[in-house]
Amino acid sequence: MIDDGKPIFVQISEQIENDILGGSLAEESQIPSTNEFAAFYRINPATAGKGVARLVDDGILYKKRGIGMFVTTGARDRLIERRRDEFRKDYLRPLLDEAAKLGITPEQVTDMIRKDQIAS
């Protein structure tokens, strides 16, 4: 999983997000401890903790004192909404801007996508 292009703590938080989106971490379920992440990825526990803290700050995880970290109720829906917004901004908007430069209408883009799906 470790990719040199991104900070490790970001990769840890993204992996947890992906596990929530994929259903392997259900809402209200406990996530592995920072020490477990650190041992598995052979990283400093503080680095793993920084990745978990990002998700706490975003309201995706919460801490049960003395027990561990848990997935917040509604976390999956929040992640889907945020990722859809990011998808729109990072992929869809540039696609439509480039299509407009080439004289391709949104309807033509939609047709291209449909044809590509059929060909796949």
TrEMBL record:
The keyword Electron transport does not apply. The keyword DNA-binding applies. Keywords: DNA-binding, Transcription, Transcription regulation. InterPro entries: Tscrpt_reg_HTH_GntR, WH-like_DNA-bd_sf, WH_DNA-bd_sf. Residues 6-74 form the HTH gntR-type domain. Pfam families: GntR. GO terms for molecular function: DNA binding; DNA-binding transcription factor activity. PANTHER family: GNTR-FAMILY TRANSCRIPTIONAL REGULATOR, HTH-TYPE TRANSCRIPTIONAL REPRESSOR YTRA. This is DNA-binding transcriptional regulator YhcF (GntR family). It comes from Compostimonas suwonensis.
